[in-house]
Specification:
By secondary structure, this protein is an alpha+beta fold. The chain is built from 15 helices and 12 strands. β2 and β3 form a beta hairpin.
């Protein structure tokens, strides 16, 4: 029996560094149908995980007698609706590749997401995608502390400090609406933490890219720092890209964010989210006022007798509890084992491929790319 075109596409997307697993209910197929018609699915099957020029993709479709011009129009259409990636090249023109579901296709649905797509996405998260996303050793995102006083030796470079990260960047800077909050809104669920939608920030090439797509508005460096500060006051969790040169910084809540909500379904979310810190409470200074419990996005604080204690398995070291403690009873401690960040996104995805396929498998993939073959 011929395999359904959408099942073929699911398996094709599942080969990427970020898995796209099959589920018992088949919700992933429903999700793909929101994004690709059957012809678009056939075309997407010819895309690789790395951007390629139009001519190379066209050669793979020769037998289907699709003209080069028609193929370009369909690929551009898929890019415009956020189902694939397209990047400019000075000599080869626009280059195309497939995208992972996250961070990728889902985020590109900002300002366009529908109730049906949102429902299928969060159902898929529950049934398989969330687990595969969280259990990867190298993450796409990490958690850094909010604007609090942290021992200087903890702040290696600018990696654990949002303001230093922004100051270091040469820009441009831009902000977008949060697609997770938009998705929950479409489903009739109101964010419990904030009414601010513009909490997803981009820097450098990523900012140029999202502004060119028309979904982000440009900011000055000072404006970005101001908006990040506002998000911190709202108790948001800061999550930049997991490398030394992050192109984005998301300010997330525990009720809408796909990553945080997926992690909270487990009894030990702190083990699934990458962070170099954890909170510690001095029971003698703590008055059990409960302000920290109110602000914690991960439900990592519990009242015990006359004070509050940290459930370490749930703590992600965001530092929001420190921001609201008037009695200086909470400190942020550095973990004994600190993750060494990938240099950039390219190294990050390289690590993910090696972890998923092994060194030999990664070398085979590299060989395919060198020969102009898709993976």
């Amino acid at each position: 029996m011929k395999t359904d075109i959408y099942r073929q596409l699911q398996r094709h997307l599942d080969k990427m560094p970020v898995p796209f697993p099959e589920t018992e209910s088949g919700v992933e197929i429903s999700l793909l149908k929101h994004l690709f018609d059957e012809e678009e699915a056939r075309i997407a099957l010819q895309l690789s995980a790395l951007p390629e020029p139009l001519d190379r993709i066209h050669r793979r479709l020769k037998e289907e007698e699709i003209s080069r011009e028609y193929l370009k129009s369909r690929l551009d259409g898929l890019f415009n609706k956020g189902a694939i990636l397209a990047v400019p090249h000075p000599k080869k023109g626009r280059m195309y590749s497939k995208l992972p579901l996250a961070i990728g296709i889902f985020e590109h649905q900002v300002n366009r997401i529908t109730k049906e797509l949102a429902e299928d996405f969060f159902k898929y998260e529950d049934e398989g995608f969330g687990e595969s996303f969280l259990k990867a050793k190298t993450k796409q995102m990490r958690t850094i502390p909010v604007n609090i006083t942290v021992n200087p030796e903890f702040l290696v470079g600018s990696y654990n400090n949002a303001r230093a990260m922004i100051e270091k960047s040469t820009g441009p800077f831009a902000v977008m609406n949060c697609v997770c909050r938009q998705a929950k809104g479409k489903m009739g669920e109101t964010c419990k933490q904030t009414d601010i939608l513009e909490t997803c920030f981009t820097m450098g090439k990523s900012a140029w890219f999202m502004m060119d797509k028309g979904v982000a508005r440009e900011l000055t460096k000072e404006e970005m720092i101001g908006l990040v500060s506002r998000a911190e006051k709202e108790g948001m969790v800061l999550q930049p890209a997991n490398n030394q040169d992050p192109g984005f910084l998301c300010c997330c809540c525990g009720c809408c964010c796909g990553v945080l909500t997926a992690a909270k379904k487990y009894p030990n979310p702190g083990e699934f989210l990458q962070t170099n810190f954890y909170a510690k409470i001095d029971s003698e200074k703590c008055t059990a006022c409960g302000e920290c419990m109110e602000i914690c996005q991960m439900d990592a604080l519990v009242a015990v007798n006359n004070h509050i204690e940290v459930v370490q398995e749930k703590c992600i070291g965001c530092g929001n509890c420190l921001n609201v403690c008037e009695f200086e009873a909470i400190s942020l401690e550095r973990k004994v084992k600190v993750e060494v960040l990938p240099k950039d996104s390219k190294e990050m995805y390289k690590r993910m491929i090696i972890e998923r396929y092994g060194l030999l498998g990664a070398l085979k993939i590299k060989g395919k790319v060198a020969l102009g073959r898709k993976f």
